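Thread: Ribosomal protein L7/L12, C-terminal/adaptor protein ClpS-like protein, structure

OP (GT): Posting the sequence first so everyone is looking at the same thing. Length is 173 residues per the record. Can we get the structure tokens written out before standup tomorrow? I want them in the notebook alongside the other entries.
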Amino acid sequence: MSLSVRYAAQCCARQLRSTSTIRASSSVVSRRFNSTEASPKISAIVDQISQLTLLETADLVASLKSRLNIPDLPVGGFAAAGPAPAAAPIEEAEEAAPAAAEKTLFSVTLKSFDAASKPKVIKEIKGMLGLSLVDSKKFVESAPKLMKESVPKDEAQKIVETLKALGAEVVME
């Protein structure tokens, strides 16, 4: 019985140490958050941004990303990403523009299909997209419809060839 009491005391001591560390770090954060050292210019920008609608905010983010050459991060990319890249000089951006013009990711859209090959197309869509049979049928019948976005070129070409062989009209954009 004394073992369980000792264990409980150790657990309580650990808990107290961790909560005191959390309190200390949260007080630093709250002091930093409540600081009034922000310049008037920053305060004005924050006021303007807080009054934007959701669509306007999305446009703002897209504009900032393009102007500052910030790449899109994959979902969950913050933990895996290294340090933020420095902004490239203007000359490097101009040289990189022709290389970036070549598209590497495509969207695949099902435009139409032959009525005779409808069951084959439904079966193939079911396998590609992982949908149920009913959902696959609804998907095919609602053509034209976007199948996949941001697909690498070779995979997109394979999808297009497969569905064209079955009698469907597929576009890679």
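GT: Both are above now. Quick notes for whoever picks this up: The mean pLDDT is 75. The beta strands are 105-113, 145-152, 168-172.
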